[in-house]
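thought: fold this chain, then report.
action: predict
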Amino acid sequence: MSAMFAQNPLGRIAPLAAFAAAGLVVLATAFLKERAPTHVVPSPVVETRLLVFSDAPQGAVRVNTPDGVAVATFGSGEGGFLRGVLRTFARERRGSAVGAEQPFELARHADGRVSLKDPANGQIVVLDAFGATNAAAFVSLFKAGKGEP
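observation:
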């Protein structure tokens, strides 16, 4: 049985061909990667709002402006996506000893994207990447608390 595996009709050509094919795949990948965009082109910001998010009684999340004006409150079972994004930011802030009183920057970009930035550490989340329905919770905060419909 071992004699069957010892006989290679192609001799040394088969291992060299496999090695050459693997090399071509690596070169092609490197070539294509150089041509592919590696970052998202930033779009100008057309509207911003500074917001402070804090815990409220009974599991609610309170949203205020930095000067204390109430913007919105999300009850215990509301704003699941908003809570998830804020948990991510809170984890980063705990690691860098930044308190909850530092405001976040909600931004609307010229291309329609909406992002949330933590100016304390530079972390940015493009909210539209998670779908328009998820981003809508944050979009509503642009007008909330301003006396606009």
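thought: worth noting. The chain is about 35% helix and 25% strand.
final: tokens above.
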